[in-house]
Design a protein that fits this description.
This protein is mostly helical. The chain contains 13 helices and 9 strands.
Length: about 500
Amino acid sequence: MTTRRTRSERVHLQVQVHGDGDEPENDDVLTRFPWPMTVFAAGVLAVVTTWLVVTIPALGLWVIDRTAPFAEAVQMATRVWIAAHGGGLQVGRSLWTVVPLGVTITFIPIVWFLTRRAALVVAEQTEEAAEPERLRFALKCAGLVIVAYTMGVVAISAATGVTERLGIVLAHGLGVSVLGAWPGVMRPFRVFVLDRLPWWAQPVPMAMARSWGVTFVGGVAAVATTFVQQWPRVIALQDELGFTGAGVAAAWVTQAAFWVNLVLWGVSWVLGAGIRLGAQSVLTPVGTDIGFLPAIPVFGAVPPEGPHHEGLMLWLVVGVLAGAVAAISVLRSLPHARCDETAVVGGLSGVLGGLLVVATAMLSGGDLGTGNLTGLGPRGIELLVLAPAIMGLSGLTVGLVWGLVRMSRMRRAEQKAESGEGSDPTRPSAGSGDIDSNDGDGDSSAEDDAPTSETEDSGVWDRLDAEDPQINEEPTGAVEEGAVEEGEEPTNPRLGPVQRPEQ
């Protein structure tokens, strides 16, 4: 008994014949649209995706505790998303201007991924193009993503009533999109910025990044140590605020959004500049002055008021280590620099790394209200002085020592080479009788300079090869057939008579 084939199971075959000048069509869905539309859509999709990254956790908390309406939960998530772009967050009657950098840094890889996917489609059309054309396409793709993302952020912020800080939102949107879009187009179009820098400047960006990473790790260590020591106070403050159940989860999720800010504040602390928590509270490695603090559990980790133990000054080693890392990263690419040059280069590397630390740390500050709750974050003037100074002096010292050690090694190597040549046992002395005189015509000095071992012989020919490249011509003893008369010894114009092998 046969079964009837349904319509959905039928297979349709289609054959298309192309002429000599025809090219097969590309069936990729993305390439069916003009490439500007594809790239611009990637920027719009990045806006939607970053908004979902913030909204989905908020809806999860709403599912746990449905005391608030669904629309209010979505509106609150949107406000947090805008605050991550510098728009501020309205909490009751207070405006929080501290940017939750813990949320902001998650947007950058999203923009990077979507930009890269779009750039791969466009790059297929420029595989055989020259580098200037690939660079133009890369700039166009990155620019379209940046425009789309920034326009989306500004439009949503304006639609939700955030109009006073639209300039700051625009700047943060540009920063996030640039940091994500430009790296996303570099590899697909084979365009690398570092390769376009002068050779001596190519290791500088990586050196700055490494020194910044050292200080960031130091900030993480300082914040973690403080929380471990003051954890009972944090829990006690949380209990006093009456958080229970979903309230505890919401409080810690909200505070986790500012974890990068806390680490950057810790960076300012380990570099000696300290932290300002409002108008009356200052934290430094030397001591702590506490005034009015907001009732937030995370501030329970603030050390007790008063002077600290002298051992806390050892945290300044973080800045010294960061400057050394910056200097070594650059000096490894300068093998022939003098000690004065290595000192200058090491110092400048440390200073540049310190300025990068200052720039990123200053993004972490802001207000948590008015009055005594303004100006939270790193102490800007102190950090601007101490960070480049500590890291620059460390880099200068490491560069100087690096150059002196290298110079000492080179001198020892030269002395060893000279002593080895002077005591070479294969070179006979001038007064020895082991050298036969050449009929007393005074040619013994020429024989003294002749190579006396296989090693010296190879060294002589190596020098001859370097001085006269014509000696490397391939046939050194070969003689063309018929070029030598019978009974005549074949000769080479450069090496003289050619010995025939014995039969």
